Amino acid sequence: MRTIKLPRADGSLASYTVREPRVWPKPAGPIRSRVAYAAAHVVSDPDSDAAIDWDATLAYRRHVWSLGLGVAEAMDTAQRGLGLDWPLACELISRSVAEARAVDGLIACGAGTDQLAPNARVTLDDVERAYEEQVGHVEGQGGGGGVVLMASRALARAARGPDDYRRVYGAILRQVRRPVILHWLGDMFDAQLAGYWGARDLDAAMEVCLDIIGEHRERVDGIKISLLDRQREIEMRARLPAGVRMYTGDDFNYDRLILGEDGVHSDALLGIFDAIAPAASAALQALDRGDAAGYRAALEPTVPLSHHIFEPPTYAYKTGIVFLAYLNGHQKHFRMLAGAERGRTAVHLAEVFRLADGAGLLANPERAVERMERVLAWTQSRASV
């Protein structure tokens, strides 16, 4: 077994011995008991933090599909709006939908308004046209690619109250070709989305969102909420119209929300499923067999890892996601769009390493140790500049 010295918060180094790798089962086909998407990251080009390594990015999506999970494309985890602009997202969506068709993989793609300049002159008409353009691009890729109607920074700036949200969402939902997934992203992920749905009070905001869903229920497949609030998700889930799914986006409480209680559960559209895809797949395979104990055994050890990856500042979680992909050999370097690999400290990444190992998520310990040592050397050299 390999031992490595990892930094601690007090400045000391502690020896850590990596465990034997866990072998995770692969499913014979798609997961049946839940609809489950991993919001997938992109692999930056090794020579540019403004370009994508397409081969590695698409290979990662094939990895996710091989585990029976769906891919949620061009979402926050892919650094949407934080390195991944609309022209690049446009190409990403086209390439990924084509790849999904080739392997019969489940995919849903983010459609937002991030082509709009971030200024106060943006109008509601501008927001509607921007949504129409992006929804049209996703729907124009042919069969198979669903739409995730992403929360809009531009709408959050332009709206003067709940009625403006009702107007914009109503206009878009009346045009979509097939039911879409709505996304309510909390301001812990993006401060520019504070007061979404026209209300700072979350109870009032939820009422507006439910009103919109109720009015357009035939056009809504479900809603993903990313508020990191288990009880609020349960309350909202209970009030959704029949046939409308709750997709948990709660990276702290997903294990209990997906399992559910009294026959009621959430489906999943999660950033953490990118990092823990083998364990998530194994857990859902267990649910397919009716094995709740097997589900818990696979998924519960991942929860401390997710809490750590998503600790404040929450938006920096993407650094931990990409770091784990690097440790596990899904990319040859630890670089991100817009230099976002600098978003976490060496101490934080060392704890990601420990917790991932504890959850059985270091596929090759030798490689993981070697790459962890490279990252520690890089962070040390950066600190000394």
Give a topology summary.
Layout lengths: L2 E5 L5 E5 L18 E4 L14 H13 L3 E4 L12 H18 L3 E5 L12 H16 L5 E5 L3 H6 L3 H12 L6 E6 L16 H14 L4 E7 L3 H10 L5 E4 L5 H6 L7 E4 L1 H4 L1 H12 L3 H8 L3 H7 L7 H11 L18 H13 L6 H19 L2
Parallel strand pairs: 3-4, 3-10, 4-5, 5-6, 6-7, 7-8, 8-9, 9-10
Antiparallel strand pairs: 1-2
Q: For the largest beta sheet, what order do the strands appear in spatially?
A: 3-4-5-6-7-8-9-10
**Uncertain residue segments:** none
- N/C terminus separation: 34 Å
Pairing-aware structural class of the strands and helices? alpha/beta
SSE run? EEEHEHEHEHHEHEHEHEHHHHHHH
Computed over alpha carbons, the radius of gyration is 20 Å
**CATH domain class:** Alpha Beta
CATH architecture: Alpha-Beta Barrel
CATH topology: TIM Barrel
Tell me, rounded to a whole number, the average pLDDT.
96
The beta-strand count equals 10
The multimeric state of the shown protein is single chain
- Helicity, in percent? 40-55%
Overall shape: it is globular
The named CATH superfamily: Aldolase class I
